[in-house]
Design a protein that fits this description.
3-stranded antiparallel beta sheet, about 10% strand, mainly alpha, about 40% helix, about 150 residues, single chain, globular, 6 helices
């Protein structure tokens, strides 16, 4: 049996970590809902900036000291940020949390499953659901594996 060796110029550790550190998780249905949403380019940009600056200890929380400082933080004008927050909120991707904003945790999340479960339970009942938009529906197909091995 021959010895097989693979050589790489990238260390194993570098291959296991993304540039810039941590990352958020976004499911396929979430990508579709975002793609199908009627958002302006500024709103789309703002959403991605909010994902990048969300609080890593309080999952999904985007802290807003003031509208002016928030606009400066994300590199956009105050009017663009104001319109973007309104569009994102109406579409259900974010919801207000006092003077701050929260990214909907069943849409994008940056923590573990237990923390996500707790965060999903705290979504306000009146928050719009981004998955109800065109193209985000789930289709159930009969005949899938239900775990029954057929030995009756």
């Amino acid at each position: 049996m021959a010895d097989f060796t693979v050589l790489s110029s990238v260390s194993t550790a570098a291959g296991l970590w993304f540039r810039g550190g941590g990352f958020t998780t976004m499911g396929y249905a979430a990508h579709l809902a975002l793609a199908d949403a009627d958002l302006s380019a500024a709103s789309f940009k703002l959403f991605h900036k909010m994902c990048a600056i969300q609080n890593r200890k309080d999952h999904g929380l985007v802290m807003v000291e003031s509208q002016a400082k928030f606009a400066e933080q994300v590199g956009m004008s105050q009017s663009s940020v104001s319109r973007g927050l309104k569009q994102l909120s109406e579409a259900g991707f974010i919801y207000p949390d006092g003077r701050n904003w929260r990214i909907r945790p069943d849409f994008v999340f940056n923590g573990n499953g237990a923390a996500q479960g707790r965060a999903v339970q705290s979504i306000p009942a009146d928050a719009p659901d981004p998955y109800t938009r065109k193209g985000a529906e789930l289709t159930v197909i009969d005949g899938g594996d239900n775990g029954d091995d057929g030995d009756a």
